[in-house]
């Protein structure tokens, strides 16, 4: 069995947070055992925020308690994602107390499942006669997909037979209800996810029916279905405006789109479907070339949590939901599994180190739903159109999809480091770890040692027990203007292609050294991104940086930096858990708010004073109380 053991200082801190803080904290929230403030994502009184009630919903559906369902119709998925995070944590390190909790959860879910395999607490409790009758909004298959994903993860982690049996029973039930055969429902869920779960279950069980059903749900989307001809939002919101093979642009709800793309790439990888892969490539380019923020965030508007149009990337009214970033990591990784292009790893890394990590506070118990690139506290509190833009992370959210989604991704981060394809092994992320892979007639042992993400030096040790030649591909991030690589301390000419360097040989106690360019860099948006014209953003390594009021005072929009001004870098061990900071000399315009006159004929009277400007990594902002933040900074062209 292939396995990867994480030894990385940076990510092990998060893994420790998940084990000691996030999973226990989220368990208490799901059980309503903790006194916290549950915030609405925006000014919408219909958002339920009195309690979680997730576990209680399952107890009622299982017949253990009496009562009504509370919360969103998709509330079940919060527990499923928690179970998946627990599975990855147990896979890494067995904890009998956590396993006991998780086993009890499996028992509870099994009891809530109906005899025919149906599983959804809302419809079991409240509307049993409405099952699968409101597919555009019911989220029944969405929740099923999350349970199946969790079940596969938990079975693989601890060998629990009941969870696998429950998942197969659910998948078999769905297969008996949906399909293109006469007498079955011709339809699909408004929120993609079941397709991902079915693909995972297929890989585990090799049951062809699950692959066939996943493909059915993919290809029926966007076609005329009686089950979808009811009142709902525009079809593009659900990615149902066209069949998937005809879709060219990223449309609609951002999370749904990347979940759809994840399943499409997964199915293309398994079946070699070139048409499906071509559709994935088109949607990928639409996202990353024209509709993605520099932080890796996606979703430009609060209305529908959706994409809008090319180059429309407002910094202070965007959505950039944490779940969308999690989904983009999934999509990027599936594309890496399908074809060897470094750009997929580049985006996966950008998203992971910025918007994914930015979604959780350094204490592991506060979470962002929305990840803005510009915040002014007064505007967020008084402008109704910015009510979704929080200045500090809430303890919990009325729609709590993001916290457990973060937990399950970060708990499994080691599985995104490598991709294996027959006799090829690709290094996609640079984290300290040790892995072993079955390749041809032997086992390849690989060990990464590095100070990444703060340091660009990576040491890769390899030893192969077999006799065959192994092809090792190492991603060279596109942000690294230059790189040096050598094997066994000797420089050599490496084959380079599509963002990877390649080494083909029989590895016997060999060592590769890679050195990346970690200098701080300015980045400029495409001229069509009107919100960023005349501005620049700062990056170093995989991190996007931002300004925060705590370091630079109020009114960050008054700051500017000359075009040729150099950056200085320093690591501050005691700041924000230890971060690398960037500084530069800049200017701050003086603004007298008491001065009469809102407008003037000339700006020549505006005075600027020299000041030191300080950037911190974007992921670490909003951990020092409520204050301003911005990513894009004005650039001066002064002599």
UniProtKB/TrEMBL annotation:
Pfam families: Beta-AFase-like_GH127_cat (PF07944), Glyco_hydro127C (PF20737), Glyco_hydro127M (PF20736). Residues 4-414 form the Non-reducing end beta-L-arabinofuranosidase-like GH127 catalytic domain. Residues 521-634 form the Non-reducing end beta-L-arabinofuranosidase-like GH127 C-terminal domain. It comes from Lacrimispora amygdalina. SUPFAM superfamilies: Six-hairpin glycosidases. This is Glycoside hydrolase family 127 protein. Residues 425-518 form the Non-reducing end beta-L-arabinofuranosidase-like GH127 middle domain. InterPro entries: 6-hairpin_glycosidase_sf (IPR008928), Beta-AFase-like (IPR049174), Beta-AFase-like_GH127_C (IPR049049), Beta-AFase-like_GH127_cat (IPR012878), Beta-AFase-like_GH127_middle (IPR049046). PANTHER family: DUF1680 DOMAIN PROTEIN (AFU_ORTHOLOGUE AFUA_1G08910). It comes from the Bacteria.
């Amino acid at each position: 069995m292939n396995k990867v053991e994480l030894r990385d200082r940076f990510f092990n801190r998060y893994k420790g947070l998940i084990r000691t803080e996030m999973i226990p904290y989220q368990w208490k929230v799901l059980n309503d055992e903790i006194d916290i403030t549950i915030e609405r994502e925006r000014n919408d009184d219909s958002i339920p925020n009195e309690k979680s009630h997730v576990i209680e919903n399952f107890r009622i559906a299982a017949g253990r308690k009496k009562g009504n369902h509370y919360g969103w119709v998709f509330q079940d998925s919060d527990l499923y994602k928690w179970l998946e995070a627990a599975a990855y944590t147990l896979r890494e390190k067995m904890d009998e107390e956590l396993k006991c909790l998780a086993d009890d959860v499996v028992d509870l879910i099994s009891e809530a499942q109906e005899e025919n395999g149906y599983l959804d607490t809302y419809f079991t409790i409240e509307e049993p006669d409405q099952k699968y009758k409101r597919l555009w909004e019911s989220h029944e298959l969405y929740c099923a997909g999350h349970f199946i994903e969790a079940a596969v993860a938990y079975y693989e982690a601890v060998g629990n037979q009941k969870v696998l049996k429950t998942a197969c029973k659910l998948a078999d039930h769905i297969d008996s209800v949906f399909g293109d055969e006469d007498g079955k429902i011709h339809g699909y869920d408004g929120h993609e996810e079941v397709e991902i779960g079915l693909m995972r279950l297929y890989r585990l069980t090799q049951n062809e029916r699950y692959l066939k059903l996943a493909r059915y749900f993919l290809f029926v989307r966007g076609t005329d279905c009686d089950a979808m001809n009811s009142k709902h939002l525009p079809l593009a919101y659900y990615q149902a405006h066209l069949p998937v093979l005809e879709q060219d642009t990223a449309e609609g709800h951002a999370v749904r789109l990347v979940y759809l793309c994840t399943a499409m790439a997964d199915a293309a990888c398994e079946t070699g479907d070139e048409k499906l892969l071509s559709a994935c490539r088109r949607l990928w380019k639409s996202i990353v070339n024209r509709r993605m923020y520099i932080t890796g965030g996606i979703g430009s508007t609060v209305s529908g949590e959706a994409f809008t149009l090319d180059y429309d990337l407002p910094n202070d009214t965007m959505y950039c939901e944490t779940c969308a970033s999690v989904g983009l990591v999934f999509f990027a990784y599936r594309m890496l599994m399908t074809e060897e292009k470094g750009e997929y790893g580049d985006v996966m890394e950008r998203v992971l180190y910025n918007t994914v990590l930015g979604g959780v506070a350094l204490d592991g118990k506060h979470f962002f739903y929305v990840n803005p690139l510009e915040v002014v506290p007064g505007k967020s509190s008084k402008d109704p159109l910015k009510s979704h833009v929080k200045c500090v992370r809430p303890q919990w959210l009325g729609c709590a999809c993001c916290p457990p989604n973060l937990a399950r991704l970060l708990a499994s981060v080691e599985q995104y480091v490598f991709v294996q394809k027959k006799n090829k092994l690709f290094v996609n992320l640079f984290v300290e770890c040790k892995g072993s892979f079955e390749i041809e007639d032997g086992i390849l042992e690989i060990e990464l040692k590095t100070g990444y993400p703060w340091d660009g030096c990576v040491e890769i040790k390899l030893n192969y027990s077999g006799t065959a030649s192994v092809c090792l591909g190492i991603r060279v991030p596109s942000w690294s203007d230059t790189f040096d690589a050598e094997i066994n301390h000797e420089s050599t000419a490496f084959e380079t292609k599509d963002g990877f360097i390649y080494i083909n040989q029989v590895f016997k106690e060999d060592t590769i050294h890679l050195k990346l360019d970690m200098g701080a860099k300015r980045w400029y948006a495409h001229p069509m991104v009107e919100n960023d014209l005349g501005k620049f953003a700062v990056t170093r390594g995989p991190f996007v940086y931002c300004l925060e009021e705590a370091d630079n005072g109020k009114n960050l929009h008054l700051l500017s930096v000359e075009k040729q001004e150099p950056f200085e870098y320093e690591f501050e061990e005691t700041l924000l858990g230890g971060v690398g900071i960037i500084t530069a000399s800049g200017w701050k315009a003086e603004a007298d708010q008491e001065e009469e006159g809102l407008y003037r004929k000339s700006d020549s009277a505006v005075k600027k004073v020299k000041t030191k400007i300080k950037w911190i990594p974007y992921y670490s902002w909003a951990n020092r109380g409520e204050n301003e933040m911005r990513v894009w900074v004005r650039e001066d062209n002064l002599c």
